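Following up on my earlier thread - several people asked me to post the actual chain instead of describing it. Fair enough. Here it is, all 377 residues.
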Amino acid sequence: MVYLDYSATTPVDEDILNTYIEITRDYVGNVNSLHKCGQQSKKLYENSILDICSCFGCIPSEIIMTSGASESNSLAILGTIFNREGKKHIITSKLEHKSILDLMNYLKSKNIDIDYVNVLSNGQVDLIHLEKLINENTILVSICGVNSEIGYRQDLKSINDIIKKKNKDTLFHSDLTQALGKTKFDLKDVDMASFSSHKIYAPKGCGILYKRRNIEIDKLIYGANNLYRYRGGTPVLPLVVSFSMAIKKSFENLDNNVKKCMELNKLLENELSKYDVKINSNEYSIPQIFNFSLLKMNSKDFIEEVSKYDVYVSSTSACSSSLNYSPILGEITNGDREISTTSVRVSISHLTTKEDIMRFMDVFDKIYNEKIVNDKE
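Reply from S.P.:
Thanks for posting it. Predicted structure:
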């Protein structure tokens, strides 16, 4: 099998999986329980949070454990709305994950004022337009640090500077799910940030919302005690410990992993440049995500064809896989259907090998000649 869909989800690291099993077996107590068994679990939980804070450069009260980035996104956005009085205006972009875009559509139906900042042809948020959109009613700006489909990386500091200059009370949230373990970021540049465990080799079902200490949001899930007051429910200790371990590993190995992915990305670019395809990823894209458009073959058909050879890629993000086109590419190409309906995302990791890339290219060449060249003839 050649797996090239790491942006959708990652395999669980063997050491992390063993830790998950060990914690599940040995730590039975509820972290909220007062007895010794519960306090042992609580101590392990608190140590895991401290490990996360050590990597992120924050304090424990700024970490809210959730079930995943989608919940973190909802908590950040709805928690801000519920906590603010008066007219409410939110700014986001068309680069966002479906969990944010769908929520924006819902909020618009509830008479929340939603604006979408323009995205330039290079995939960068239009900072001039962003500044014009911010007004006295703007309570939140939500723009992802790294887009999941093309890999566009945003300048969070510049975005935050513009927000605070125009309205110091406006909060800045960023979905950093695709940034964690792939590129460097500084949480000082945001007020809130979302993360997900299954993108960095930990089990599915765990997420984080980072929330800067001096801001308040409302909870979505009730039943929390004073210690975990922003999110009700019993913390799933094995998932929290596993996620913490994965974060620590990702920070320790970041430079080496990025370097390897840059080399593989360049190899892929060189190989695909031999064909009549349009490469959509650019210098602003992280090296782990490589996007191109076939131009003469639908994305869905191509993905099905390569799957027959045990090679796995995607087009849009997994949560948008039912779409037959890329809304993001449609946005930045002024609705070019040829580009947006034929895009393919190859997402790699430090686990990817040169042999994986060349196997993909062998299969690509076969399908390209059979389905595209022959069809033209």
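The first strand starts at residue 2 and ends at 3. That should answer part of your original question.
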